[in-house]
Known about the structure:
This protein is of the alpha/beta class. The protein has a five-stranded mixed β-barrel with strand order 2-3-4-6-5.
Amino acid sequence: xxxxxxxxxxxxxxxxLVQAAECLxxxxxxxxxxxxxxxxxxxxxxxxxxFESGDQPETVWMLTLADPICIKAIPGDAWSVSQADVxxxxxxxxxxxxxxxxxxxxxxxxxxxxxxxxxxxxxxxxRATHVAPSQP
Length: 136
């Protein structure tokens, strides 16, 4: 009976162990993500709350991931917080890419960081160094 209980415990713990091993890391680690790229417009200055009240449009690239990811905190970094089930990431282009990718499935390469200050539109952002259409 004891070996059977051990097998059950290992099976119950295994998914968590696998997920922890697959978590990505914040910058400077380079990551590659796949998902749908969409150009979205949010209210910008001066109040960042409403177009109707006169706020200027602020255009932002957003990536909806094909599969959710988790991100591991960097030990000793107060801004680095572990995140689970991340599905949407704000893209901060570091290299130009075509507007024709709007609404398309893409592969994005860059470094992840936790959004802070200013007016982020997602909890996690990616400094994108390369964006390309995904291959079927």
